[in-house]
Specification:
By secondary structure, the protein is mainly α. Helix content is about 75%, strand content about 0%. The chain has one domain (about 1-295).
Length: about 300
């Protein structure tokens, strides 16, 4: 009975925290995007060299998009002639870095963890975006065109702050409803792990003494999770049971960046070799981040 109470308490506490964070951060981000000059962002991403990749990663990290939004925007950027490398930095950063994920990491793992995660994934997005462009990745694009990038302009937004706040919260609530089932599943699994899974099993297969725990965790994330929010909730419970923080971070990155639904949607834009290259990039990012976390954590 005590174990059940502990698991239930974990579920209710984490679920309440994540609900508050998701709605609060999503509302703020939606409000900020109303003031963000999209044309200037597109101009910055259209530049040449390193800065374009930085802006691609920055825009990808700022916008809490799921694959259904990322893919149309990716096509839109490509159709506008934005450099391939900058677009790839956006594609890599978008699922791995957004304000909601960072806020969850701060709340559940601490500010240092979120800061290191942000630095590693941001640098990886910029570097691998450059690498994919320099190695000729653009030739693996399929000939696909769309009529709209699915991104609203600032002109259609209300002028008063009160109405903007109301619209922002409405969008946040709509987004929350779409991810609620994933949060419930993630926190539910985390609660079961927290209450019932023996620590010695975790220590044996994913503890800090297992040199293969990080790449294994990165691969395990692929079929199990389709949102980083789900993986983080489960990862926290695993970490409390003895899983190394590096393996947890690899699990989060692998699950968020290499999720099967997103890879399937990317296959509608890119040929198989390019999709495979993106999978390798995310896997390397997960492993590198995991190793760094085990050193600094």
């Amino acid at each position: 009975m005590n174990t059940f109470v502990d698991a239930l308490s974990y579920f209710l506490t984490i679920m309440a925290e994540l609900t508050f964070l998701f709605l609060g951060i999503s509302t703020v981000v939606a409000l900020v995007l109303m003031y963000l000059p999209q044309k200037r962002i597109e101009k910055w991403m259209s530049g040449k060299g390193f800065l374009a990749n930085v802006m691609g990663a920055f825009f990808g990290s700022l916008t809490p998009f799921c694959a259904c939004s990322t893919i149309p925007m990716t096509l839109g950027f490509l159709n506008m002639g934005i450099p391939f490398g900058a677009v790839m930095s956006f594609v890599i950063a978008s699922p791995l870095m957004n304000p909601i994920i960072l806020a969850m990491l701060v709340a559940l793992m601490g500010f240092k963890t979120a800061l290191v995660y942000l630095a590693v994934t941001f640098v990886a997005s910029v570097v691998f975006g450059i690498v994919l462009e320099k190695t000729g990745g653009e030739k693996f694009l399929k000939k696909v065109r769309i009529k709209s990038v699915g991104h609203e302009s600032n002109e259609g937004f209300p002028r008063s702050l009160r109405r903007k706040l109301k619209l922002s919260f409405s969008k946040a609530w709509s987004d929350f409803r779409t991810v609620l089932v994933y949060l419930l599943v993630g926190v539910g699994i985390g609660a079961v792990i927290y209450g019932y899974l023996p620590e010695d099993i975790i220590l044996k297969f994913a503890g800090p003494d297992n040199p293969f725990s990080i790449p294994i965790a990165a691969v395990i994330g692929i079929p199990l999770y389709i949102r980083a929010e789900t993986a983080i909730a489960i990862g926290v419970a695993l970490m409390q049971k003895g899983m190394s923080i590096g393996a947890v971070i690899a699990l989060v990155i692998g699950g968020a960046g290499m999720a099967i639904p997103e890879m399937s949607m990317l296959a509608s834009i890119f040929k198989r070799k390019m999709v495979a290259a993106i999978v390798v990039v995310i896997f390397l990012t997960a492993v590198i981040a995991g190793l760094i976390f085990n050193v600094v954590g």
